[in-house]
Specification:
This protein is of the alpha+beta class. The protein has 2 domains: 104 residues; 145 residues, Alpha-D-Glucose-1,6-Bisphosphate, Chain A, domain 4. The chain contains 7 helices and 6 strands; from the N terminus they run H-H-H-E-H-H-E-H-E-E-E-E-H. Helix 1 packs antiparallel against helix 2, helix 1 runs parallel beside helix 3 and helix 6 packs across helix 7. The radius of gyration is 24 Å and the shape is elongated.
């Protein structure tokens, strides 16, 4: 019985340590990629996707054993610590399952635009920043690797609300509104050209420092007013899990305020 009590104490302490280590491990994996300590493929692909689930499973098993012994071996102490430790991997697994479900329901694409016929193009200002190994900027003819369908077809089906934005403002006023909205999004503005009606920016995620590039095109509309088209594309990765469409929606909301 004394040995079980010692084992219980050890497992409770180990569960608490693992519960602290697990979120720290994920945070360090992500921030290490963001600040250039290692490549995102190592931070996300190796550390998070490979070792992350194993660490959560280890924490789960240790915390569960600690909880069982805390309830069975007198004095019945440590069960609250074990429960809190158990909550960490369960929350992580629940979040991972949620993300997996979203990814499974959405097309495997990362390039979203309000105009799939006359797609806004990026200038050399953005192209020069993207570097080698990034996703192609070609939109026409781009195929969803999972469904083998055109990205334009998959996009329209998944995000039917992503359409050209029509404003009553003239082109100059619309450009000013679009630039103000873009700045309010917290993006890094790269191009700001009233003459061409082009605004380019880069959005950087807090975790991993993933960069998505945005181009906004403002043109005069026939009969007055103006039309605004937006394109948002991830530099790396296959599926954006709806982030680029969400970004365009947020910009549209900011523009229409």
């Amino acid at each position: 019985m004394e040995n079980l009590a010692k084992l219980k104490t050890l497992l409770v302490k180990l569960a608490a340590g693992l519960a602290i280590l697990t979120p720290v491990f994920f945070a360090v994996s992500a921030l290490g990629s963001k600040f250039g300590l290692w490549d995102w493929r190592f931070g996300f692909g190796v550390l998070v996707r490979n070792y992350g689930p194993k660490l959560m499973m280890l924490t789960l098993v240790v915390a569960l054993l600690a909880l069982i012994l805390s309830l069975l071996v007198k004095p019945r102490k440590g069960w609250l610590v074990a429960v809190l430790a158990l909550a960490v991997p369960l929350a992580g697994m629940g979040y991972g399952k949620k993300i997996g479900k979203i990814a499974g329901e959405l097309p495997f694409i990362h390039d979203i635009t309000t105009d799939t016929q006359d797609v806004p193009s990026f200038t050399s200002a953005i192209i020069s920043q993207r570097g080698e190994g990034t996703n192609t900027l070609d939109y026409v003819g781009k195929i969803d690797k999972r469904s083998k369908k055109l990205v334009s077809v998959e996009q329209v089906a998944a995000y039917p609300d992503i359409r050209t934005i029509v404003l009553s403002d003239d082109r100059d006023a619309a450009f000013a509104r679009a630039l103000k909205a873009a700045k309010s999004m917290g993006w890094d503005i790269v191009t700001d050209s009233p003459d061409t009606g082009i605004i380019e920016a880069t959005a950087t995620s807090f975790w991993f420092g993933f960069k998505d590039d945005v181009v906004i095109r403002i043109r005069a509309a026939e009969g007055g007013g103006s039309v605004v088209d937006v394109r948002s594309i991830s530099r790396v990765g296959g599926s954006d899990i709806g982030k680029n469409a969400e970004r365009i929606r947020q910009f549209r909301d900011a523009l229409e305020k």
